[in-house]
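does this look right to u?? tetrahydrodeoxyuridine version
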Amino acid sequence: MSDDLLARATAVAARAYAPYSNYLVGAAMRARDGRIYEGVNVENAAYPLGICAERTAIAYAVVDGCRPGDLVEIAITASPCGGCRQWLHEFRLERVTFPKPDGEVVSYAPDELLPESWDLPA
Ligand code: THU
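got this back:
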């Protein structure tokens, strides 16, 4: 399944809006019920306002009614940044797949990508 998701992430990356970095990122995510959500990075002339591909995919899923625990796996065309790792943790993704810079495709659990992660105190 991750192979399919990575193919979709790679295809959707072409629709990224990244005129400042020219770095096109795509993400594709599968929900437990089989729905697929895609995302791309969307940049802004005020640079810090840009949003990563993973976060647009998760926002898309939330608009469609998904909540933490509903999303199973995500494939991304790049290694997720630190902020996106916190989002992946929040939504309890079970598997995160991306190609390393050398091309090797790797999969991790979000806890491996963000050990001892922060949560609101109970
Ligand atoms: N980017 C993502 O979309 N996801 C990541 O996890 C890493 C970075 C985007 C943000 C920005 O538009 C571009 O890559 C360059 O940093």
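DSSP finds four helices and five strands in the chain. idk if thats expected tbh
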